[in-house]
Amino acid sequence: MAIHSKEEIVSNLDDEVFGTGFLPHPLPKYKLPKHETDPTAAYQLVHDELLLDGNSRQNVATFCQTWVEPQIRTLMDECLDKNMIDKDEYPQMAELEARCVHMLADLWNSPDAANTMGCSTTGSSEAAMLGGLALKWRWRKKREQAGLPTSKPNLICGPVQVCWPKFARYFDVELRQIPCEGRRLLMSPKEVVERCDENTIGVVPTLGVTYTLQYEPVQEIATALDDLEEEHGLDIPIHVDAASGGFIAPFIHPSVVWDFRIPRVKSINTSGHKLGLAPLGCGWAIWREGGDLPEDLVFRVKYLGGNMPTFALNFSRPGGQIAAQYYNLVRLGREGYTKITQGCADVGAWFADQIKKLAAFDLVYDGRGGVPGCTWTIRKGQEPGFTLYDLADRLRVKGWQVPAYPMPANRGDLVVQRVLSRLGLSRDLAGLLFEDLERAVQHCKKYPASKSLTPASASGYHHN
Ligand SMILES: *Cc1c(COP(=O)(O)O)cnc(C)c1O
Description:
By secondary structure, this protein is an alpha/beta fold. It has helices at residues 3-9, 39-51, 70-78, 91-107, 124-145, 163-170, 189-195, 218-232, 249-252, 320-357, 388-396, 427-446; strands at residues 118-121, 154-157, 174-177, 200-204, 238-241, 265-271, 283-287, 299-301, 308-310, 361-365, 373-378, 404-406, 415-420. Helices cover 36% and strands 13% of the residues.
């Protein structure tokens, strides 16, 4: 447009967003505002508030997906209005969910993958609740049939994610959590069996422990429970919390036997939104065979038309995550998942090797045989003049979130730090992180700051 005509139309243009009247006012925080706001302005304000959040790609604390292909964004957008619970209105969404269930059951070697039961959830936490409930129901039914009391169910686990203490409290089950002891930071078959009794509804090993990233020995635990059954007649099922491992082990640790190849493993949960590579809000609960899910936990809902079985803690939920999960399964196949997972594992192992070279640290997990990533602690006998909390804090200056946290009981004295290697953490980006970590170490040594930094005041550790 000619320069001289600009002047004439300028008064007809909409105000530039920061020129509009909203700018001098803070956003309402406690009361619904009286008046409307222009959508462009409202968007800008909300958008800007979110600028203050961390950059998710630099968050190496989370196990969750922070990078997706553009096609996934398109699918998520297209499914914005599709309520996955409404299986009568959106039968194809229900079909995609069922296909994912069967593919995962097959991936985990269910003897009857095409017919077994399973469902999508909002994440592993909801899937864990469903798995735990099924264990409780199965145990109670057996006890009732034998005329035995059913008032004191217990569940055995190791150093678990917070969803299991939650399950235990919400659904009135005693949690028999095996404490860490010395160098043993996982459950062991011996510790499991010692805690089993007639009121044990199940044992939950974790494939990819939140604290260290290592796998708990599912097969050894199953064998110990087989022996227990032979000796004492106690038949105790296993539910595997494979929140991250469910999408790792099948691809890069095929020799680890942890899934439905073990008859005692009756159910498995995983997070689609972790190594499953689906966007946030996607989990799966899968049962070994149809009969392993108690029928009276399934509700048949008629008021949406049709007669659809539902087993879930919530009702309405967007369907996009399911479509995106199915997209990933189809798009990547075994080949793609294997490449991506191996790539993450290689970066994790490389990072561990770099940490190993630093005099201040000892590796707790060397990035091999478990979840891609690594875990370390301050080397025994070293007084580097800083804590891992100081280091985590210093790394925040460059935008990295590298959590430091104490191990659970009885190793609360052991503070560790962890990096997760996910899709999107390239070797190059990991290299930049390592350089920043080295600089942060130098800084902390040079300015031995706050001995007062405690877990509460340092950047927090989140159990996800
Ligand atoms: C992440 C995680 C959970 C919780 O999963 P969400 O998908 O975040 O609900 C449970 N258990 C383990 C082992 C985990 O890693």
